[in-house]
Amino acid sequence: MNMIPLISADPVTLTTCPYCGVGCGVKVTQTAGQVHVEGDTGHPANYGKLCIKGSNLGDTLGLSTRLLQPQKNRKPGRQAISWDEATQTIADKFQQCIDQYGRDSIAFYVSGQLLTEDYYAVNKFVKGYLGTANIDTNSRLCMSSAVAAHKRSFGEDIVPGSYSDFEKTEMVVLVGSNTAWCHPVLYQRIIQAKSTRDNLFVVVIDPRFTSTCEFADLHLPVLPGQDVALFNGLLQYLSRNGYADAQYIEAHTSGLEESLAVMQDETDPAWVSEKTGIALPKLLQFFEAFARTEKVMTLFSQGVNQSSQGTNKANSIINCHLLTGKIGKPGASPFSMTGQPNAMGGREVGGLANMLAAHLELDNPQHQQLVQNFWHSPLIADKPGLKAVDLFRAVESGKIKAIWIMATNPVVSLPDAEQVKRALEKCEFVVVSDICTDTDTTAYADILLPALGWGEKDGTVTNSERRISRQRAFLPAPGEAKADWWAISRVARALGFSGFDFNHPADIFTEHAALSAAGNSHPDQRDSASAFRYFNLSGLTALNPQTYDNLAPVQWPVLASDELQNMSRPGTVHESDSSAEHIYRAGNFSHVQTRAKFIATAAIDPVNAISGAYPLVLNTGRIRDQWHTMTRTGLSANLSSHIIEPFCEIHPLDALKYGITEKGLVSVESAWGRCVVRANISQNMRRGHIFAPIHWTDQTASDARIGQVVNPEVDAISGEPEFKHTPVFVLPFFTKWQGVLYVRHGQESAFDEFLQRCSWWTKITTAKASRYELADRRLFTDAIQTVKALPGFKAEDYEWLHYDDTCSQLSHSLVLKNGLLVASLYIAPPDLLPNREWVATLFKRERLSAMHRKALLAGLPMSVQANDGPVVCSCFKVGKNKIIKTIREQNISDEKQVTACLKAGGNCGSCLPEIRGLIKACQHEAVA
């Protein structure tokens, strides 16, 4: 808990978590200047549960990395300026670009981290006043394929089901989703339902054996990129064996014959087995289970969406639900799980380059006119803008002259990330709005604007089940930080535009709600010119600041006839009726003809297939305790203890083939770039495939941005990049020595020169110090000379202790000030480096004793300490070795027994799949 100033007079604030698309409710309690975060038991997304990231939100509220005032010029020439100067500069530059190059010379790249009110204001400004659709979002990277699939099948971007369906279903199919790590609260909900109902059958479809697979009844290790072949095969199996719901198909769908006609090969399960890499008995078990189970929920996420065939993958899943009528009913639905907290809210306001606000169509002249009239805007974008990857290519080519980036870090997160860096280096004018002073992207800002962060900003978000929730402020705005909608409105007014006189986020939300109702015809009165859509917030258009502030979570659609009194009491939940929970329950879809469409999906192999030069396939994704590029989660020592370094998982036989050793450094290289990570040899990988996480940046590692390796090929329909299939090769990254450095927080810059000369390093946050794992190709003696010549710690101000043994390639250095440990550096063979946790504890001491000094200099604790191993349970700091020892000694066979003995898994539950995996490993070991 942090000691911080507060603004809320109420000691309890109900808000929402700023991480994944589950959209968990959070209860923030303020006591004597401290903040305590826990789950909101009244929020229907999580009913009080929080994952480890949400539980540690309090650790991320400090100001150490915050941007606190507007700045101009790129590093190293940054200068603080006023908001007036910043906004006028932006307005002048935008007007200059419009006059000289045209409106399409300006672009925006925004984020699912924005609140709906921010998203609405910037979309209105760009499409309705600047008159360009060159605004895209990092949500393009995670859910745009699902959006395109929904629109093709349903006629509107709608997730038809609700979280409650996972508790009513009889079969859960998780496709391309490590749900246990990426959406842990929803996963815990599914596992809780499974524990109370023996008939709930869980299938995981994933190339890797992940933590999610630990509780599954069936794991199907599909080859990357072959999901369409799998679900086309399922569709043919269902059709051929009499499992189609003929009555539903006749009444509510169209296009089935055309869809079946393109799947000639997929009629043979043996062909599907060979194509997908799934053993035929397991494949038929899945087909038969899907066929015979009435209530099936298919949850799909990034493994489906992030693909050059992502849209077709999602449509092939939806096709199977339409064929069997397993949609719009309790416990039966395809379900797209979004990655970010407000990806759905961004879709509502048209945040993508090919959308208009309020689920209206950018290429429909009637819809264009409707929105322009509603906004009273001077013009309206009339053609799709550039999608993310193409947008930054246009920046590099000079087509885009000015870009405003908000709440995202594209130099890290986009594929072929070196291209993004080149683009921003060349761009004439770059504006970045962020909460952090230093990210890989802010380095290129000509104007840098301080934004509000979680706990400070005020507005709404919409989660993956279409539930709108309030994100409330309980902290004062630090420095001169402002809401993103405020900054946009200031620039709009500086350009002479009316329509941006917003004084409160409620003003924006009610305008957003009113636009959702504008021209929204009755569902029975649809025609080709109709603006009907199920997205409708007409029941929320009359909110005032007070009722807006007290708005309780509600699923859309929210119609004007709905009762609003339940939503005007703080802390109460407005449970929508079945019309919101199951939009398509009556079989009336959003297409003009009211029918859902089967979409013909051909099974096409991934582009840029592997070759002799690049014989392996790289798959990327998230890890349990970190989020995106770690600008928030990286501040928490708790969250940095589970997986501390960038890594790649590789199969043992591939490791042997390419000379890779466990925990050795490896270079991962593709046609687009390279990075250096630690090797984890794992049987959970298929041969020929490796996995690496996305989170590390140039701020947290020397050379671990996986985005610079990733294939920039995109889905032709959605524009979503191919993050799951990049041809690569790996080779050992040889170094002459390794080491570990601890530097007390606030003193890190003293070692900048040393780190810049190291071949490889990664930064880990601990409670009192930053820890750096090091490796270098220089001679040992050169490294020692560099350390001793550091200018940051002058001998007259600091006390230095050294121990060097050149013959053994070993060096220990300590820096102290007034008895306080400031830094420690150990260079030694890996097995002689000290216990990391022990060193970290000594930074917590106010003064070191003589015995502590001797022990630190020797690199050995004064007494033998048990090494608990890497942290598994971040909540209670329980390590892997301790859990394994307890499992063996107590002959444990169930994860609940581990919780009873060690508390591990007894709080957020995020570690339970790992604990279950350790139990299985110990059982297999005992049998062997």
From TrEMBL:
Cofactor: [4Fe-4S] cluster; Mo-bis(molybdopterin guanine dinucleotide)
Boundaries of every 4Fe-4S Mo/W bis-MGD-type domain copy: 10-65
UniProtKB keywords: 4Fe-4S, Iron, Iron-sulfur, Metal-binding, Molybdenum, Nitrate assimilation, Oxidoreductase
A GO cellular component entry from the record: oxidoreductase complex
PROSITE patterns for the chain: 4FE4S_MOW_BIS_MGD
GO molecular function, one term: molybdopterin cofactor binding
An example Gene Ontology biological process: cellular respiration
Name of a matching Pfam family: Molydop_binding
Stated family: Belongs to the prokaryotic molybdopterin-containing oxidoreductase family. NasA/NapA/NarB subfamily.
Protein's UniProt name: Nitrate reductase
Source species: Cellvibrio polysaccharolyticus
Taxonomy of the source species: Bacteria, Pseudomonadati, Pseudomonadota, Gammaproteobacteria, Cellvibrionales
